[in-house]
Amino acid sequence: MIVNKELIIDYLKSNQESIINDIRSLVEIPSIRDESTIDINQPFGIEIRKAFDKLIQIAKDKNFVVKDFDGYAIHIEYGEGEEVVGVLNHIDVVPVYTKELWLSNPFNVCEKDNHLYGRGVNDNKGPLVGILYALLFLRNLNIKPKRKIRLIVGGAEETTWECMEHYFSINEQPKFAFSPDGNFPIVNGEKGILYFNLRKKINEDKFRNHNLVEIKSNKEDGFVCDKIEAIFKTNDKKDLIKSLVYYTEIEEIEEEKILVRYIGERALSRNPHRSYNCAFNLAKDLDKIKGLNDKGIIIKDILNSYFTDDNHGKKLGLYTEDVNMGVSTLCIMSIFLEKDELNMKIDFRYPKGISLEFITNRINEVGKKENLIVDTYKDLKLLYVEPNSELINKLSNAYKRGFGKEVELFTKGAASYARVLENGVAFGPTIDGDIPNSHKANENISIDTLYKAIEVYIYALYNLAFQ
User: Fold this and answer.
1) pLDDT < 50: residue spans in the chain
2) Between the N and C ends of the chain, which has fewer C-beta atoms within 10 Å?
3) Which of 47, 216, 73 is nearest to 153 (CA)?
């Protein structure tokens, strides 16, 4: 094979400064979706448009062919041929939810302890630049590939995914593809994702000794509900406080009112088992209060009947387990009681073995029984690629060359662009032991991991496009 490790290592050493500078230039642009600045050729706002323009400049400076698809997506192309090898990345990033927890400026790459820190360095600007340099390496070999390679970059992966809908309404599906927006070795399974909202008007409320009047929580989708503030109006503060067990702290805010706080550990809603949901603690405390008002009883019963201490959807009748893809997960992301309306946002992720029709029918059954309004607002189909497929075999070969290890296939609850592909998977860059903090404070990527990923991507693209 003409592609050898020593050649790649020398190439990466000689381009180290350029690689980091290109990542830095993209991270400096806070490419967060902004509906207020939508315009022609910038359907996701000005900052995502700026990030696309910077990437186009970087690619053109390296003499690549670039095409812009109305600001929804671009592709960077190398080679010729009817068949396409696709690599799907995204230029948009999630907001900086907790800036006070960052140890450096999120939009200025900080290099420390052989890591790069900044919003998007791992998800997904670092891997994006890595793929660009993998293409540059292959082009420099002066060997004509059998298939053209397209680095496809979308602008709304963190939100609506309409970027890929627009792109593939114009362009053909690749014969082989992967998204460097996951983990090594190979993510051949991604669970189905359903976000839904449960709402209930509670107009009538009989006040008693202890009355739940308001609930507020964190608002961000994609995270376990890790902070709740519940306000009670009570005739006997001492008795109410004595009844509570699972709270974090209590504050007396008015003569007859107390504020009860529940604080947990932040975790992604796709991994609810890695934290403890504050809504569970609230439900358990409501269960201990004697003389609770009707509003409090209704909320307590809904929580305890369908959610409390259940991270897998058993109480809702949705639990599913698949030998290849693992088990379903269910997570309350937020809960609010404001102006006589209960509002809960739920994240449900599921493997093979259960249909979307069954899931929605079951949720609607519960909604009808409890007089809840059910709104579905995010729906991503599951992905599963058979282990013996040609794509998996070619990527497995690349992984083994790079890491010297046998491949293990696995499933994640996360969503990558691989879901929009007819024949694609998530493939790196994260390896065991990395803590990239994607979507969290202090997002980072190990420089060693990045360079190892580029090496593996060179092998993979050679296998997919040249052989």
Assistant:
1) none
2) N
3) 73
